[in-house]
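Blackboard transcription, Thursday session:
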Amino acid sequence: MAPPPAHPQRSPSPSQPSGKSEVTDLRSQLRQLAGSRAPGADDAKRDLFKKVISNMTIGIDVSSLFGEMVMCSATSDIVLKKMCYLYVGNYAKVNPDLALLTINFLQRDCKDDDPMIRGLALRSLCSLRVANLVEYLVGPLGSGLKDNNSYVRTVAVIGVVKLYHISASTCLDADFPATLKHLMLNDPDTQVVANCLSALQEIWTLESTSSEEAAKERETLVSKPVIYYLLNRIKEFSEWAQCLVLELVAKYIPSDNSEIFDIMNLLEDRLQHANGAVVLATSKVFLHLTLSMADVHQQVYERIKAPLLTQVSAGSPEQSYAVLSHLHLLVMRAPYIFSSDYKHFYCQYNEPSYVKKLKLEMLTAVANESNTYDIVTELCEYAANVDIPIARESIRAVGKIALQQYDVNAIVDRLLQFLEMEKDYVTCEALVLVKDLLRKYPQWSQDCIAVVGNISSKNVQEPKAKAALIWMLGEYSQDMPDAPYVLESLVENWDEEHSAEVRLHLLTAVMKCFFKRAPETQKALGAGLAAGLADFHQDVHDRALFYYRLLQYKVSVAESVVNPPKQAVSVFADSQSSEIKDRIFDEFNSLSVIYQKPSYMFTDKEHRGTFEFSDELANLTINAEAGDSAVPAQRVEANDNDLLLSITEKEEGRDAASNGSAYSAPSYDGASATSAASQSLADLAFSSTSGSGQAPASSFAIDDLLGLDFSVGAAATPTPPPLSLNPKAVLDPGTFQQKWRQLPLSLSEDFSLSPQGVAALATSNALLRHMQSHSIHCIASGGQSPNFKFFFFAQKAESASIYLVELLINSSSAKSQIKIKADDQSTSQAFSTLFQSALSKFGTA
Amino acid sequence: MISQLFVLSQRGDNIVFRDYRRDVHKASAETFFRKVKFWNDDGEEDAPPVFNVDGVNYFHVKVAGLLFVATNRVNVSPSLVLELLQRIARLIKDYLGVLNEDSLRKNFVLVYELLDEVIDFGYAQTTSTELLKSYIFNEPIMIDSAVMPPLGAASIFVKGNKRMPGTVITKSVVANEPGGRKREEIFVDVIEKISVTFNSSGYILTSEIDGTIQMKSYLTGNPEIRLALNEDLSIGRSVLPPLTDYASSTAVILDDCNFHESVHLDSFDTDRTLSLVPPDGEFPVMNYRMTQPFKPPFRINALLEETGPLKAEVIIKVCADFNPSINANTVLVQMPVPKFTNRVNFELDHESVGNTTDFKEANKRLEWSIKKVVGGAELTLRAKLTFSQELLGNIMKEAGPVSMTFDIPMYHASRLQVKYLQIAKKSKAHNPYRWVRYVTQANSYVARL
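(Written on the board underneath:)
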C-alpha cells in the first residue's frame, strides 16, 4: 500500500492561508515524500505541490521550501514537473544558490526525447533569471533554436530575449540575434517567425540606444524584403502574430503608390476579421500608408468605418471601448466623413460614463447643418438625464455645437430653455454656455439677457456659473435694470463668497457697471473696492488696488481700460495643440489613443518599446498639416510644455547613449571639450580649421561603424571637396519626414555655442534667418528656454543630394548637439563642418 | 507585451497570479483593485477598462464576476490586450466547462498550465483551444453546476452580461463524460441584442441589432461544416427608400459583418453559405450589425400625469408584439421617478404569477419584473406617486425614460436564419446532434416620456 498521504485535518480550501505554520507543515510533508517511489506518491505530491502553488498565488512566501521542492521534482509525472517549474521560476531569483540545484535536472530535461519536456525545461531554465547561471543557458538555447520541433524553437526564441534581459552581453556574444534573423526568414513555423520578430524588435530597440548598428538592424526589419516576406504569409500567422506583423507594416514606407495599393488589396479582408485587434492594426496600416494621398486617405476612412462600428457593437464592452476610442480619434480628425453616422454615437442609457463621454464629444464634432437639429434634440434628452455628470456634459456639448455653427437660432432657444428647467446644475452649466455664446455672438444679447435677468443669483452656487452670471451683469448692465442692485447685494455678501474667481469677476463687473450707470453703482463700487483692498487673496487685492489707482489717475482712462469696445471671439482656443493630436494619430492602435496623450507623457523612456520609431519626427507633422512647405519657421506655442518635456527626456537618453556608445570615442569628447574651452577663452567660434581637423578621424569612425567600404571614406577624407549648397532648396515636410525615417544617422556631434549665439537665440526666428542666409533652411522648430530643437535641411548645389539636420540647443549650458542624415553620406562630414561654421557665426553679425 | 496577468475575485482576492516579466511591482493587484473600487469619490462611475497608475498600465475585462487583469509598462495596442484577456477567459471556460470563482479555485493549476502556454514572456503565443490540448495535462475538476441543465429554456443565457451571453454548454472540451464516450454534438446559437429608442409618441428614433452566430463544437475528427444563411441576405447598406415598411420587405440587409478566421467565404457571395472546420471550444462564427428597420418585439407606452399638488400617476403599458407560441422571459421594466417621490402604490391589471413591483427608494426607481410574457399579451402597470415636496419644474423632465430588459428565445428580430447546418459525414451511421437556437435580448430598450 502507498504510504498514507499525510493529509492534515485542515480545511482543504486554498484560499484560507494560515501562514507560517502551514509552510512548516508543508515542508515536513514534502520531506517525507521526497525519496518515495511508492505507487500513489505522485498523487500525494500533486496535492502538496498544489498547496504550495496556491500559497504562492495569494502572496505567502513559500520560498523557504525551495530545497524540498527541488528534491521532490525528480519525477516523470509531467503535471508535477510543470508545477515544479512554475515554483522554481518564481523563486529562483531570490534563491540563486539553490537555483543551481535545479540546473541539473533542467539541463537533463532539455535533452529529453519528448519535445514537450524539452520545451518546458528550456522555458523554465531561461526563466530562472539568475545572473550567475547564464553560462548554463547558452548551450541549451543554441540547440533549442536548432531543434527539429517547432514548439521547442518557439520557446527557445523567447528564451533568447529572456537571456538578453539577464545578460545582454552573453546573448550578443553568442550571436543569437543573427540566428534569430535567420530563423525569422526561413522557419516554416509561423509562430517561430513571429516570436523572432518580437524578440528582434525588443533586442534591437534596446540595443539601438547605444549601438548604431542595432538601430540599422532594426531599420532592416521594415525593409521591403522582410515586409513582403511577412505579408505574403500573413494568413498563416495566428491572429496575435498578425497584429504584430501589421504593426510592423504600418512603419514601412513603400516606394511608390502601386506598392501601397498592393499592400492594401492584400490586407483588405483583414478588416472583416472578428478580432478587433486585427481590424485596428489593419486600419493603422491603411491610414499610415495613405497619409500622403489625401483623397485615398479619405476613402480609407470610409472603408474602415463600417468594420470599426461593427467592432464597437459586437465586441465585449471593454473591446468596444477600445475601438470606440479609436473611432473617436478618427471622428475628431475628419468629422465630415462621419456626419451621416451620427446616430451610432447616441448614448445608450446603460453604457458606462466613460463611453458616454466619448460619444458626446463625437456627437459634438460631427454636428453640421443637416444633422444639428437631431443631435441637439438628442442631447437635450440627456440634459434631463438622471446621470448628472453626463447631463452636464450634454449641456456643454450643446453649447459647443452652438459655438461651431453659424445658424444658432434653434440652439439658443434650447439653451434658454435649460435656464428655465429649474435644476441647479442645468442652470449653472447653461449660464456658463450663454456667457461664451454672447462673447461669440453679441447679437443674441437681447434674447439671452431677458432670460438671464430672471435668474436669481441666490440659486446659482457653483463658482463658474456665478462668475458667468456676474460677467453678464457687468457686461450688459445697460440692458438689465436690476444689474446694479444685484451686484450691490453680491458685494454686501463679499465675505461669504469663497471663490476668488467670483470675487475677481465681481470687482470687474462693478467697475463696468459703474461706467454705464454711475449713480446707481457708486455705492456698490465703493464697497466692492474697499472689500477687495482688504481681501486676503493676493490677486483680488491687487486687482482692487489697480482699479482704485486707475480711478484715481483718470476716470476716462479707467473706462477705456475696463470697458473698451470688444470684438466678438471668433474661435475659442483648443485645449490640445494640433501637434499633440498628430502625434497621437501617429501612435494609432496604442494606449496613446485611449489616454488621449502621446506615449512620452505616460511611459518611461526605457519602456517606450517599438512604438517610438518616429520619435524625433513628432513635431514635424505639424508642418505637414499646414501644408505650407516653403515657410521656414513654424513657431510652436511658447507654452507648450509637452514639447519641452520630450526634448529634455531625449537629451537624457542621448547622454546615456553616448556614454556607452562605441563611436563617441575619447578623441571626440576631447575635441569638443577643447573647442569649448577655446571658445570660452577667446570668444571665438569654431574656426574652420578645428572643424576640418576633426573631419578625418570622425569620418573614419563612421565608415567603420556603418561598414562602408573604406576606400570610399578614404577618397572623401583627404581633401573634402568644397561643399556648396543650393540657396533655393525646397523640401516639403512630408518628404523630410520620410527621408528622416529612411536614412541612417550619418553623423552626430556635440559642441558648444558662443555666448553671443545663445543671447541671439532669445530673438525668435533669428537663428532661422541666419541659417537661411547660409542656405540652410529650417523646416520645424520648437521648445522653450532653455531647450530648443530645430530641424534643418539643405541641398547640395547642382545635385539632388539632401542633408537633414536635427539641432538641439540648451541655452543655459550653451551646449548643442547635431544629428545629420544625408543622401550622400560621404559628404556629411563636410556638411557638418559647414553647418557648424555657419552656426558659430550666429550672433556675431 | 504583458508584464503580469492575474484573475481577481469580486472581493479582490488573487485567484491566479502570473508574473511574466517582473518589471511591475508585486502589489499591482492591490493597487488595481483599490483603484477600480474607488474610481471616483462617490464610487458611482465604473473604472474604464484601461488606465494608468504610476507608469503602470492596467487592462481588465469582467467575465462571470471575475476580473481578468493584465499589467505592463509599455505602450501597446489596448484592443489586443483586452481581446487577449477575453480570449483567455473563454479558453478557461472551454477547459473547465464552467467559468466562475469556484471552478477557477479548484482548477488553478490547470489555469497556470494554460497561462504558461498562452503567453510567454509577455508575448501572446496561441489561444487556440485545440492546439493547446496537447500541452495541458491537468484534468479539470468539475464543479456541481457543471452538470448539464436541460436544454431549451432561455434562462440558460446568463443574465447581467449583456454583450457576451454565456451558453448552455457547460461541458469541458477535455473532460470525459461519466458515460465514458463523448457525445458528438454541435451547438449553433444565433444571439441578437437589440437596441431601440422610442420617443414620447411611440415613434422609433433609433434601432439597431447586434448579432452573433456562436458555435461550440464537440465533433471529433474535425469535419467540415456548411452553414447556410438566408439567401436574400445582403451586406452593406444599399440606397434604400428611407421609409421601408418593415412588414413588407423580406430581405435581410446587414450593415456590416465579420467572420471568424476559420470561416471560408468562397461561396458566400453566391449562395450565402459559410464553410468552416470548427476549432474546439466556443467561438463566434460571425458578428453582424443591422440598422435596417425591424419590428420591435415590445411596444411601450408610458404616461406620467400630475394628479394633485403632491401626487402623480404613472401608467406603463407593455405590448408583446410577437407570436403567441413564443414567450419572453425575465422581463424587467424600470423607470426613474422624480427625486422627491417618497411613496408609491402599485396597481396591476391582473395578478399574474411572477409579477413583482418595487420602488427602489435609494435611486428613486420603479421596477416591474415579469417572469414570463406570452406573445400577444398586453400588460399595464399603474403606480401612484406621492411627493414629499412640491415639484418646481416640468414633471416630465424629472422622470423617465422607461427602460426594459428581456430575453426572447426562439425569436430573431433580424430574421436572419441558419437555413441548414451540414456536417461532412464520415459514415452513414455517424449522425451527430445539431442544435440551432435563437435568442433575442434587449441591449438598450428605451421609451422616452
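Lecturer's comment: DSSP finds 41 helices and five strands in chain A.
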